[in-house]
Amino acid sequence: MADERSLVLQKQRQLKWPALDWLERVLMVGCGLTLFAFSLSVVCDIVTREIGHPWLWLQEVTSTFFIYGVFIGAAVATRRNDHLFLAAIGESMTGRPRLMIETAIRIVVICVGLFLAWYGYINFLRGFSSFRMPSMTPIASLYAAIPISGALIALFAFEQLVNGWKNGFEKSEEDRLAEEKAGHL
To answer: Is residue 10 part of a domain?
Structure first.
């Protein structure tokens, strides 16, 4: 059993490839850093405005951290099966109906991820013709988060689909015991 303090969620371990655990860890750290930086930049923006010397570029920094945090968070939540899934529907079923609904859900999420990746990339390329004020940075710097997130969402949904077909989508005995233990504490 992995360390309980690990950033890599051990829930539904049968749906994850250990080879991608490092990526989940990096994404979780990235989420934490973007949340911290977003909060810090908001506080600095408020303070500098209140003292009468606003840093206008802070709004660009704040929006950048917010956007990257949202899209990184969507990708890591997909890996952790905490987002973009109709989990309650699948978890209420067993056997073949569960396999079918879990497969359908993940196929939809893969399609969404691929659309995000493709159209996000097109939007990213178009973003080089628009600029953020006052820095004049191409807005493509914000749009880059979209195709990256889409590709990761598709990858993680594919990972779960393959492993679900191989190992089953239903909770392992280890997951059930962990939930029972958490309920009694």
So the answer is: no
